[in-house]
């Protein structure tokens, strides 16, 4: 394990931690991250655990909040953060102390998640977002979080993403692994970011049904309203301690940036879109999950 600096085409570097060839954010010092990472596969799971999994910047915070509200039976802001229940950022002993039902989350490949989660058929909510929107959001994420120490331009960031050199390595391999698992495991529920944006009430209803939660139409509507992007951005930003904000975020940065669909069109040049297509398009066409983005 080591802290590495990956250079983009413009000479700017982005700081990450390399664990046996697998890249993750430097949430913690290397020795602590190594211990966390090694303990994840053997984490003790409970039958009522729910896992929110997705590529980075795909709506994990949003979905985590919705699922947590459904399990609580209340349309009330969750006082703690998704990050406090993120497998690769939280020591095992803290995860163990979280009361049931736990809503855990991760961006890790399925093969790196707790073995017991699959053995006990825990429920997974898997989220997908247009990878072009993801790339733009991810760029601003890396620019805004001081741990990355990144000051590059999007034109030089995009190749790093497409070539699988950033957090969690190759995006397409990640999606393909989950797609194969979904063919065999009914305990994995798919949610598209775009569907949450266009019809949040219906997607919340689907999540409640998947989780086996009986709730009224009024509660579903209130949860949908409470998890409106602007509302949630205000609520969750206000729950971040100032010392944490100063330690991790650069000035004026928020985890919740725009929350829009199609924003990539305001960033990608024609040449960048053609480059994206040359790297991803054919492979995306072979994926039932990603075909809607082709």
Automatic annotation (TrEMBL):
GO terms for molecular function: sulfotransferase activity. Keywords: Transferase. Pfam families: Sulfotransfer_1. InterPro entries: P-loop_NTPase (IPR027417), Sulfotransferase_dom (IPR000863). Gene3D superfamilies: P-loop containing nucleotide triphosphate hydrolases. SUPFAM superfamilies: P-loop containing nucleoside triphosphate hydrolases. The keyword Transferase applies. The keyword Transferase applies. Residues 48-287 form the Sulfotransferase domain. It comes from the Eukaryota. Belongs to the sulfotransferase 1 family. This is Sulfotransferase domain-containing protein. It comes from Potamilus streckersoni.
């Amino acid at each position: 394990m080591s802290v590495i600096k990956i250079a983009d085409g413009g000479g700017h570097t982005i700081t990450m931690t390399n664990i046996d060839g697998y890249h993750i954010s430097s949430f913690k010092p290397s020795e602590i991250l190594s211990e966390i990472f090694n303990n994840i596969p053997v984490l003790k799971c409970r039958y009522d655990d729910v896992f929110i999994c997705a590529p980075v910047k795909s709506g994990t915070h949003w979905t985590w909040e919705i699922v947590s509200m459904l399990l609580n039976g209340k349309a009330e802001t969750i006082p703690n953060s998704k990050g406090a229940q993120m497998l690769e950022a939280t020591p095992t002993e803290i995860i163990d102390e979280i009361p049931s039902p736990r809503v855990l989350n991760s961006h890790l490949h399925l093969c790196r998640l707790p073995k017991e989660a699959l053995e006990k058929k825990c429920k997974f909510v898997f989220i997908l977002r247009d990878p072009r929107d993801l790339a733009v959001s991810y760029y601003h994420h890396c620019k805004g979080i001081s741990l990355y120490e990144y000051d590059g331009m999007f034109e030089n960031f995009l190749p790093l993403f497409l070539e699988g050199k950033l957090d969690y390595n190759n995006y397409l391999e990640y999606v393909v692994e989950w797609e194969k698992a979904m063919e065999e495991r009914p305990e994995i529920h798919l949610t598209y970011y775009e569907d949450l944006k266009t019809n949040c009430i219906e997607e919340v209803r689907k999540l409640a049904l998947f989780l086996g939660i009986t709730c009224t139409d009024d509660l579903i509507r209130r949860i949908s309203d409470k998890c409106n992007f602007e509302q949630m951005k205000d609520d969750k930003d206000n729950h971040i301690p100032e010392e944490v904000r100063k330690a991790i975020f650069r000035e004026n940065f928020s985890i919740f940036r725009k929350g829009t669909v199609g924003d990539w069109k305001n960033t990608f040049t024609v040449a960048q879109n053609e480059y994206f297509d040359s790297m991803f398009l054919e492979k995306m066409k072979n994926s039932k999950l990603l075909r809607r983005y082709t």
